[in-house]
Design a protein that fits this description.
The complex is a heterotetramer, with 2 copies of chain A (about 200 residues) and 2 copies of chain B (about 325 residues). Chain A is mainly alpha-helical and about 200 residues long. Chain A is about 65% helix and about 0% strand. Chain A has a single domain, classed as DhaL domain (Serine Threonine Protein Phosphatase 5, Tetratricopeptide repeat). In chain A, strands 1-2 form a two-stranded antiparallel sheet. In chain A, helix 4 packs antiparallel against helix 5. The radius of gyration of chain A is 15 Å and the shape is globular. With about 325 residues, chain B is an alpha/beta fold. Chain B contains 8 helices and 14 strands. In chain B, the strands form 3 sheets. Chain B has a 6-stranded mixed beta sheet, with helices on both faces. Chain B has a 6-stranded mixed beta sheet with strand order 9-8-7-12-10-11. Chain B has a two-stranded antiparallel ribbon with strand order 13-14. Chain B is globular and about 55 Å long. The termini of chain B are far apart. In chain B, about 70% of the residues are buried. The chains are: A mainly alpha (about 200), B alpha/beta (about 325). The interface between B and C is large, with 64 and 64 residues. The structure holds adenosine-5'-diphosphate (2 copies) and magnesium ion (4 copies).
């Protein structure tokens, strides 16, 4: 079973890997975006960690809704409302149980990803974070490591795509040949989930 | 790239402190990142709020004041502001008749302003929205996030601001804002990339002897790269792209806008070519504005925006405005 | 270096054509290179004429209009204008009470304005002159051409222009102009060189990680090259250099001026640091102006100018002005 | 004896060598000036040639006063009034004789150079055009080729000097180690004199 502590570890591991990879994320956001994705998420997850320490939420749902609200209030850009909605909706779907199992998490995450698709209007293949998140959720039944590889594969697979959402879509065909920064950070988020599970 | 900054992390806060010092007629909330005209809320008048990533100055903070915006919400550099900023601004400027959000069409801006609208409406504030999407360089199709909002934003903010200043009701101010957006088209070119403080190096590589056609205002590359062109050729290309998309029946307002690092000397010379092309194409010019208004940090280049105006829109354009970045008639 | 131009030879003429198109309130004689306010000569009022090399825009052409200059004479890029221009301008704006030449202290400007004064006096026009030399980076000694005129020029043109607008006589307008110059001090830094159209490459090489301290406005290197400094350190250095040379007893006007390619975002942040240093040094600030006013083409960097003002000078600074580059109160 | 035709040849030869050397003059004006000396003189001498063709002055004095006036009206900068004054005063000193001898020219040129020193306030050693002009005038008694070498020597000798007049003086010690652009163009002017004499 996964308790509030597990979800806190997930957020901490995400914050750490976003910190480590911030320059790379910003560099990916440079040829097909506006060179801010890494610093956006760094700022957001830093404030998530601070809020979790300060407010010490006691349930999995509360950890994620607080984290999501925090992202919405500090990131800005496209990724702020989208990642914020992802965590907030996932958290809401977890309700106020003190512990949840992996199946419940998979179901809640799917609700979160659906909310991101509804909000941003992106479908798989549009070269966005969705291309890492959807395969990850699909693979979650096979465990965290499977989800991690699926997300990584999904991120890598954005390279040959032409973007249809977000800033990269302005470039038309020139968006082809670059890996999507948001899909890349989504892979980090899912990898942190596996890390939190010690897998 | 060298910058006149302390550290990248405090660039926006530092700028807001400096703005507060220079402009006592504005209330600058550095902590919460909201710039409000000092006399807000103005009784009985619709309030205009805009915002977006920083790095486009004087847009939007420099357009706060009588006859234009009531408040502006600056995000991090090239990053849409967060909903809390616009919600706070709405509470500060609403005097009852409601607020109009002027939103440049970027996924991030749209999402954050929409969330802010929900928050403000929860507080009982009436909110309307004008989406600005004037950039003809972007194909508006199912396969893009739609056209970007660029130079036309200035026309929307000024003209809707004048309508609000006259005491027109929210639906009317919104309708005028939408009409200005529908009448506006822009096209931009870059001679160099820009450098964001966070990245510290140019956002794209542009070899000597080449330029980017159809750029936006966030340091993103354009649609096409070509061998360097003369000012006259660029004017033909930019005005041509706009007129392919719109056939003005009325005279136009012309904005010849610098992206940040192109000297005014060159912008005026470019304006001469833009005017020549407009004359050749039979487009009448009502007013012309030349300068750095909707910028992209230290990018070299320029954009052209045309906005068709009937008598009412022209009257509203000419109406008094008193902001750090645009000022006449008072 | 890429530029938004046709050919280097026509840069100034092209800019003047573009200025004419944008500013119907000015009469722009493109052939003879004289920019005159449309309503000149203004009966009974002293007329102000300035000029200098092009490349410093909006200085001087952008400061022509009610409350400031009557005419401006732009030379080639970074090249003083020829006497014929100022003589022609004097004939166009003089309404009887005489003309005041505002001359930045450069050998070329001084020589050409002096020759113009002779020509104008031959035509029976009374001519007085204010020499602007506010740059503390230059040692004023027998071994230099004296201090350069830089940012202080804006203060002299605005304040003397207001005095002329009030109908004060030539000796008085001249005395006020001199007083403003004596009360003004500037210091500038460059983060990059600029590129003149004629040369087509940067006027000096500045390695990454270094800056030039004590630069002028003609792309010339400064007095000293140092490892890159933060905005706060630069503010301390620049304000320090000024206060080493002048101890203001009265409040000061502050001009935080961009050299051309430094974004407004950075200039406002720099202003925050300048204000901090002034507060620490006990200098009271009356008014602050932040923007690109006295530029050096596409140079990155900034200058600080302080001008001590008593009540009269402050009143004249606040008086209405209506020019393309500076506008308030009307 | 030197007639109007000789002085016209002098101006034509100067215009041609200024054209040839414009980039070099501008380059010299770059480290210690404002990178315009070459284009300034190019513009000036181009208009001198046009005026000489149009007005066809008939005496040595008239050729030089017209040329000087033309430089004053078209060059601007420091060099416009200075070179303009040099030619105008030299022309005035030649009076309206139809022909002059080399001694008269030397005397008139000295008057011109004196006028430049009076106008600009520069003395020999200040790292200006004066450093080429004064030695040239001094050497003129020994013929045009001697004047040419003296001017060239004078221009080269400006390199180690610290500038005390003009823009270069703003640089203080940093002006040392660069050859003065105005002294260099003065050497061209004197070389053109020798060329006009066929020497
Ligand atoms: N409509 C959308 N739906 C889903 N994800 C999107 C959408 N638009 C953009 N994104 C994601 O957001 C990422 C960019 O985030 P970020 O750089 O932080 O914001 P911005 O584009 O506003 O600068 C993209 O790489 C993409 O994965
Ligand atoms: N006071 C002076 N007296 C004599 N020559 C001078 C003086 N000031 C400048 N010069 C000469 O003028 C040259 C520069 O000319 P130019 O570049 O055309 O003008 P500017 O310095 O105005 O740009 C210098 O190299 C120097 O030889
Ligand atoms: Mg981005
Ligand atoms: Mg962004
Ligand atoms: Mg010059
Ligand atoms: Mg020069």
């Amino acid at each position: 079973m996964l308790d509030a502590e597990f979800f806190r570890r997930w957020m901490t591991a995400t914050a750490a890997s976003v910190d480590r990879e911030a320059e790379r994320l910003t560099a990916l956001d440079s040829p097909i975006g506006d060179a801010d994705h890494g610093s956006n998420l760094q700022r957001g997850f830093k404030s998530v960690i601070a809020a979790l320490e300060k407010e010490a939420p006691q349930t999995p749902g509360a950890v994620l809704t607080l984290s999501g609200r925090q992202l919405i209030s500090t990131v800005g850009g496209a990724s702020g409302p989208l990642y914020g909605t992802l965590l907030r909706r996932t958290g809401k779907a977890l309700g106020d149980a003190a512990e949840v199992d992996e199946g419940q998490l998979a179901e809640a995450l799917r609700a979160g990803v659906d909310a991101v698709m509804a909000l941003g209007g992106a479908a798989p293949g549009d070269k966005t974070m969705i291309d890492a998140l959807v395969p990850a959720v699909d693979a979650l039944d096979d465990g965290f490591p499977a989800a991690r590889s699926a997300a990584e594969q999904g991120a890598l697979a954005t390279t040959p795509l032409q973007a249809r959402k977000g800033r990269a879509s302005y470039l038309g065909e020139r968006s082809v040949g670059h890996q999507d920064p948001g899909a890349t950070s989504s892979a980090l988020l899912i990898a942190a989930l596996a890390e939190a599970a010690g897998e | 790239m060298k910058m006149l900054i302390n550290v990248p992390e405090t660039v926006v806060a530092d700028a807001l402190r400096g703005m507060a010092a220079a402009h006592p007629e504005l209330t600058v909330d550095v902590e919460n990142r909201v710039i409000v005209r000092r006399d807000a809320p103005v009784a009985g008048k619709v309030a205009l709020i805009s915002g977006g990533g920083s790095g486009h100055e004087p847009l939007h903070g420099g357009f706060v004041g009588p006859g234009m915006l009531s408040a502006a919400c600056p995000g991090e550099v090239f990053t849409s502001p967060v909903p809390d900023q616009m919600a706070r601004a709405a509470a500060a400027v609403n005097s009852g008749p409601g607020v109009l959000f002027i939103v440049k069409n970027y996924t991030g801006d749209v999402l954050n302003f929409d969330m802010a609208a929900e928050l403000a409406e929860d507080e009982g504030i009436q909110v309307a929205k004008v989406l600005v999407n004037d950039d003809v360089a972007v194909t508006d199709s199912l396969y893009t996030a739609g056209r970007r909002g660029v130079g036309g934003t200035l026309f929307v903010e000024k003209i809707a601001g004048a309508a609000a200043d006259e005491g027109q009701p929210l639906e009317r101010v919104e309708a005028i804002g939408r009409q200005v957006n529908e009448n506006s088209r822009s096209f931009g070119v870059a001679l160099s990339a820009c450098t964001t403080p966070a990245k510290g190096s140019p956002t794209f590589d542009l070899p000597p002897g080449e330029l980017e056609l159809g750029i936006g205002i966030h340091g993103e590359p354009g649609r096409e790269r070509r061998a360097m062109m003369t000012s006259g050729e660029i004017a033909e290309f930019a005005v041509g792209a706009i007129l392919d998309d719109m056939t003005p029946r009325n005279p136009v307002l012309v904005l010849v806008n610098g992206m940040g690092a192109t000297p005014l000397l060159e912008l005026y010379g470019f304006n001469a070519e833009v005017q020549r092309v407009l004359t050749q194409r039979g487009v009448a010019v009502a007013r012309t504005l030349v300068g750095n208004y909707v910028t992209s940090l230290d990018m070299a280049g320029a954009s052209v925006t045309l906005c068709q105006v009937d008598e009412e829109l022209l009257r509203l354009w000419d109406a008094p405005v008193k902001t750090p970045g645009l000022r006449w008639g008072m």
